[in-house]
Amino acid sequence: MAIGFDGIIGAGGGYILVGDDVIHHHTMPEKDVREMIHFFQENGIEYYLESNSGLFGSERYDEKINETILAYVGNDEQKAEALTVKNQWFNQLIDSFKGQEIDYGDINKISFINNTFDFQDIARRFGSKFEMFHMTVPFFGKESGEIAVKGNDKSTAIHMVLDNLNLTKSDAISFGDANNDLAMFRACGYNVAMGNGTDELKAAADEVTQSVEDNGVAKSLIKHNYFKV
């Protein structure tokens, strides 16, 4: 917010802040969160919990990410090191919450790092109660994913914001890079895929800009005269 944003859609649509007003916040039932954690621990799946008070990683989440990164780059150690360094800020963010007490009744979303246990088996176990998103972060492993509250997605959240502001779909522009952004694309009038985005997302986009690392969002905004430099 400090850089000038006047609102946030977080947790894949589970948390919405417009100005100073929280207009939507839907968390996971604590009983289900604990059940998922137990399942992950039994099956060697690492994870992190996302809440408004922080990101809380499992005991070996960072080791597992290093393992899945190496597999993602085809065991090329040089590429793995470069991607690990690029991702270091994220590990540091999670590490900053180590030791803090976790409120298991205030969890917005769970992401899991996994390249061994079949995603579809996880989806069959939890998909009746929760939204399941496959491989939203590719280097988290081919069987990785996110688990979110049923009915929470970016499309629903965007519609709630537009209604709150008395705006329409044609007033909304989106930027995305993963398949869980497809719902967001359906809710907005103009959609921009990042250069590092998935092929499916690029096919659904009105425009493909450069990658996140190459300042693709800023370049697209400048191109359309939303701000000047």
Instruction: Report the average pLDDT across residues.
Output: 95
Order of helices and strands: EEEHEEHHHEHEEHEHEHEH
CATH topology of the largest domain: Hypothetical Protein, Haloacid Dehalogenase-like Hydrolase, Chain: A, domain 2
Strand content: 15-25%
Report the structural category: alpha+beta
Strand order of the largest sheet: 5-4-6-8-7
The amount of helix comes to: 25-40%
- The top level CATH class name of the largest domain: Alpha Beta
Pfam family, one: Hydrolase_3
GO molecular function, one term: magnesium ion binding
GO cellular component, one term: cytosol
Short description:
InterPro entries: HAD-like_sf (IPR036412), HAD-SF_hydro_IIB (IPR006379), HAD_sf (IPR023214). With 229 residues, this protein is an alpha+beta fold. Helix content is 36%, strand content 22%.
Question: Can you tell me about this structure?
Answer:
The chain has helices spanning 30-42, 61-72, 77-86, 88-95, 119-126, 154-164, 182-187, 199-204, 216-223; strands at 7-10, 15-18, 21-25, 46-51, 54-57, 107-113, 130-134, 145-149, 173-176, 190-193, 207-208. The protein is of the alpha+beta class and 229 residues long. The protein has 2 domains: 30-149, Hypothetical Protein, Haloacid Dehalogenase-like Hydrolase, Chain: A, domain 2, CATH 3.30.1240; 169-229, 3-Layer(aba) Sandwich (Rossmann fold). Strands 5-4-6-8-7 form a 5-stranded antiparallel sheet. Strands 1-2-3 form a 3-stranded antiparallel sheet, with helices on one face. Strands 9-10-11 form a 3-stranded parallel sheet. A hairpin with a 2-residue loop joins strand 4 and strand 5. Helix 2 (61-72) crosses helix 3 (77-86). The two termini are 21 Å apart. The relative contact order is 0.13. The model has no long low-confidence stretch (mean pLDDT 95).
